[in-house]
Hints:
CATH superfamily of the largest domain: Jelly Rolls
Shape: globular
Number of helices: 12
Strand content: 15-25%
Amino acid sequence: MNKNAHLLGELRELILRHAPSHATHPLLANVVLSTYTVPTQSVPCLSEPAFALVVQGAKQVILGEQTFRYATGQYLIYLVDLPLSSNVIHASEEEPVLGLGLILKPEVIASLLLESGIPATKGDGQRSIAVSNLTEDLLDPVLRLLRLLDRPNDIPILAQSIEREILWRLLNGEQGAMMRQLGLADSRIMQVARAIKWIRSHYAEKIRIETLADVAGMSITSFHRHFLAVTSLSPIQFQKQVRLQMARSILISSPRGVADVGLAVGYDSPSQFSREYRRLFGRPPRDDGQIVRARAGE
Length: 298
C-alpha cells in the first residue's frame, strides 16, 4: 500500500466514525464532513469558496456547461460563491461516498502571501474552479486536522494552525497560481467576488450593471466579460439564481404562500416566480417545499 492510500484509509475511518451524514462538524467550524449511502440528485446551490476532497467514491459538480468530476484521491477548489449543481452518482451502505470540505478564507490566504513573500500576479480571472490530485504533503495536514476530532481538547490550540498549513500547501500546489488570486484584493477574482457579495446583499432589488461594475472597480465591458468567465452566468442570471435559492430556503423553513415568497425575494409576478422556480428545481415551489420538509422530518 502506498503512502497516499494509507493516509486515505485513515481519513476514511475518521469520517465514518465522526460523520454518519453530511454536516458541518460542531467542533471544526470551517470543516464539512460528508457520508452518502445513496446516490443524490443534481441540486442547484450557491457555494462559498472551498477546498473539497473525495476520500472514497466520486462526486460531480456542474458549473454552467462545464462538468467537474473528482474521485478518490482528488480535490476540487472553487474561489467565489458559485451557482453549482452537485451530485453523487454511485453510493451504497457498503460503499458510501466520503468527502471533506474546508472553507477558504481570503484573509488567511492574504496573510500567508504577505508573510511568505510569494510573488503573485493578478492573473486573468478566467478560472475560479479546478480539480487536482491529492499529494502526500497536502493529505498529511488534512489527516492531522481530522485526528483532532479524537482529541477535542487540542482543537482550540491546533486547528487554526493546521488549517493554515493546508492553505499553504494549496498555495504551493498545482492550483497555487489560481489560489493566490483569493488573497489579492485587486485580483480579477476578488473584484468579481465583491460584485457577487453586493448581489447577495441586494438580491431582492433591481440591479444596475453600472452599480455592479463600480463595486467591482471595472469598466462595464470588462465587468461583463470577467463576471461571465468566473461564474458562467450574466449578473442578471446570477441574481435570479440567488433569488430562487433564497426562496427555496424560505419555503423549506416555513410554509408560506408562494406569492408572498416570490414577492419577498423580488418577483412582482407570482406566475413568473413559479415558472422560473420549477425550471431550476424541477418542481413547483409549493410542492418542492413540502417534499423537502417531509424528507427532513424522516
